[in-house]
């Protein structure tokens, strides 16, 4: 982890910002402990017939809700839509969550 010092208005006011190289999250999100799918408004749906299992959605999912076999665990999915945005084939659609 790299620590960067940023100075604000004066040298007396310094703050430290901790950044990881490559924006790697060293400690996974809290969804491993807390199921967060209950408050989702949109959910991703994958067209499995067109999916090539490239793994990009899995790699970009910030909460590890997508398995390497490209299955979505909706108990942990927050509905952020990053998987749909990053899918090169655009076969992941965000649909309204029906409770």
Structural write-up:
The protein has two helices and four strands, in the order βββααβ. The protein has helices at 56-60, 82-86; strands at 2-7, 14-19, 42-46, 92-96. A hairpin with a 6-residue loop joins strand 1 (2-7) and strand 2 (14-19). Helix content is 10%, strand content 22%. By secondary structure, the chain is an alpha+beta fold. It has a domain at 28-96: 2-Layer Sandwich (Alpha-Beta Plaits), CATH 3.30.70.
Top keywords for this entry?
99 residues; alpha+beta; Alpha-Beta Plaits; two-stranded antiparallel sheet; 2 helices; 10% helix; globular
Task: Lay out the secondary structure.
Elements: E1 2-7, E2 14-19, E3 42-46, H1 56-60, H2 82-86, E4 92-96
Antiparallel strand pairs: 1-2, 3-4
Helix content: 10-25%
**What is the residue-averaged pLDDT?**
79
CATH topology of the domain at 28-96: Alpha-Beta Plaits
The rounded distance between the terminal residues' Cα atoms is 41 Å
Strand order of the largest sheet: 1-2
How does the helix and strand content classify structurally? alpha+beta
Shape: globular
Secondary structure tally, helices: 2
Order of helices and strands: EEEHHE
What does the largest sheet look like? Answer: 2 strands, antiparallel
Quaternary arrangement of the chains shown?
Answer: single chain
Low-confidence blocks of residues: 1-8
**In angstroms, what is the radius of gyration?**
18 Å
CATH class of the domain at 28-96: Alpha Beta
**How many beta-strand segments?**
4
CATH architecture of the domain at 28-96: 2-Layer Sandwich
User: What share of residues are in beta strands?
Assistant: 15-25%
């Amino acid at each position: 982890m790299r620590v960067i010092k940023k100075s604000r208005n004066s040298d007396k006011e310094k703050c430290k910002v901790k950044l990881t190289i490559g924006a790697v999250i060293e400690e996974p999100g809290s969804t491993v402990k807390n199921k967060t799918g209950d408050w989702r408004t949109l959910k991703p749906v994958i067209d499995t017939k067109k999916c090539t299992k490239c793994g990009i959605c899995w790699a970009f999912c910030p909460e590890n809700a997508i398995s390497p076999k490209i299955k979505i665990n909706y108990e942990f999915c927050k509905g952020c839509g990053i998987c749909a945005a990053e899918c090169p084939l655009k076969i992941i659609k965000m649909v309204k969550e029906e409770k």
